[in-house]
Specification:
By secondary structure, this protein is mainly alpha-helical. Among the domains are: 130 residues, Serine Threonine Protein Phosphatase 5, Tetratricopeptide repeat (Alpha Horseshoe), CATH 1.25.40; 147 residues, Alpha Horseshoe (Serine Threonine Protein Phosphatase 5, Tetratricopeptide repeat), CATH 1.25.40. The protein contains 21 helices and no strands. Helix 7 crosses helix 8, helix 13 runs antiparallel to helix 14 and helix 14 runs parallel beside helix 16.
């Protein structure tokens, strides 16, 4: 099996690099800073706005700075914008503090001064300006601060305070990972596994998961176990079970319960002996603890064990599985693509979509028919290596983004 088919050094955009590298002022663009919620002064006449700003009104000072910054009703003048932002920032205006930090960071209307930029970013972040925290992390990350590198990577990965960008997230995770940070090593492995920001590489994912797992990271221990289980190599069975045990003792309880339940349900690769009763017990625990895969495979377990009498419970499990998966922002192939697949796992996902009316008209009869087929094929041991390529991604833990 070529499991490499499975498998979040990217530099900043040219504009951002040029802005950091160029001496003196760097010309900002409209997207250079956060556009604020409309203010009562945004429609105020320029003469009145200047008068209010001259009287010390911090909101008027900030709005006047915005007009100079963008060239709205006045000639664009970054020095005047900088001065206006400074007056408002000194009075505690949060957005002005952020923009003053940007000016010092980028050299807009003033000389570049990272230390002063850091000060004003911090002031703005303290008042809840999310982009200020993002840029505060960017300054510290550039200086090699591991925590800031992780925070910056998280911002890019989640789209918190900036546009979501897996390439930049992967770059900063790896910077921190190379300094030995376990969480960053786990996320670097995940990015390689999912092809987020890096070309997919199962070998690189294993490498970084292993480094994090050796430091006791439960997420990495669990994902590394998934990789070993789905690699169809019996030599890794003992280590996979050991990793699952460590992950369950730490915090990856529901995911581990679901995977163990699945192993008992299928008897895959002789890791454990197939036992429907033990599968049901583990999958019930996983379901109650909020695992979407626990609910998904519990529907198969119930169908296998109880047949027609479990139909309503099975549909409820499929609905719950989809609800949790949606909350976790899981992505699935659309129903039309899944209909043409012969893979057992694809049929199970299709059953879930039918049970929920997701991407296809709700049809519990079709969902039940597919679930029966999946149960029978699993009972006969008909899972293929292709199914386990799908399962590796299905069972991998990753943060909800």
């Amino acid at each position: 099996m070529n499991i490499n088919k499975l498998c979040r050094h990217f530099i900043f955009s040219a504009l951002f690099i040029a802005a950091l590298a160029a001496p003196g002022s760097a010309e900002p663009t409209v997207s250079s800073h956060k556009v604020r919620t409309p203010s009562k002064y945004q429609m105020t006449e320029l003469s009145e706005l200047r008068s209010l700003a001259g009287k010390g009104d911090p909101e008027a000072q900030y709005q006047l700075g915005e007009r100079y910054f963008e060239g709205i009703g006045v000639d664009k003048d970054l020095k005047q914008a900088f001065l206006c932002f400074g007056k408002a920032a000194q009075q505690g205006h949060a957005e002005a503090q952020f923009m003053l930090g940007r000016c010092y960071h980028m050299g807009w209307g003033c000389g570049k001064d990272p230390l002063t930029a850091n000060h004003w970013y911090f002031q703005a972040a303290e008042q809840g300006v999310s982009q200020a925290q993002f840029y505060l992390n960017s300054l510290k990350a550039e200086e090699g601060d591991v925590i800031a590198q992780c925070n910056l990577a998280d911002s890019y990965y989640d789209g918190n305070g900036t546009e979501k960008d897996f390439a930049k997230a992967a770059y900063w995770y790896k910077q921190a990972a190379e300094q030995g940070e376990a969480y960053a090593q786990f996320m670097t492995g995940l990015c390689y596994f999912r092809g987020e920001g890096f070309s997919q590489s199962y070998d690189e994912a294993i490498k970084w998961y292993r480094l994090a797992a050796e430091q006791g990271d439960a997420n990495a221990q669990y994902n590394l176990a998934v990789c070993y289980i789905c690699d169809n190599n019996e030599n890794n069975n003992a280590e996979a079970l050991d990793l699952l045990n460590k992950a369950q003792q730490a915090k990856r309880v529901q995911e581990t319960q679901a995977l163990i339940g699945f192993l008992y349900l299928t008897g895959w690769n002789n890791i454990v002996k197939r036992d429907v009763s033990l599968a049901e017990a583990a999958l019930n625990d996983a379901s109650q603890n909020g695992s979407w895969t626990g609910n998904l495979f519990n529907s198969v377990s119930l169908c296998s064990h109880y047949g027609e009498e479990s139909r309503d419970k099975c549909m409820a499990q499929l609905r719950t599985a989809y609800s949790i998966a949606t909350y976790e922002k899981r992505k699935f192939q659309n129903a039309d693509e899944l209909k043409s697949s012969s893979k057992v796992i694809d049929k199970l996902i299709l059953a879930m979509l039918y049970a929920n009316g997701a991407g296809a008209a709700k049809d519990e009869a079709k969902a039940w028919q597919l679930l029966r087929e999946v149960s029978e094929r699993i009972g006969k041991g008909e899972l293929t290596e292709e199914d386990f390529v799908s399962l590796a991604d299905l069972f991998q833990f990753h943060p909800a983004v």
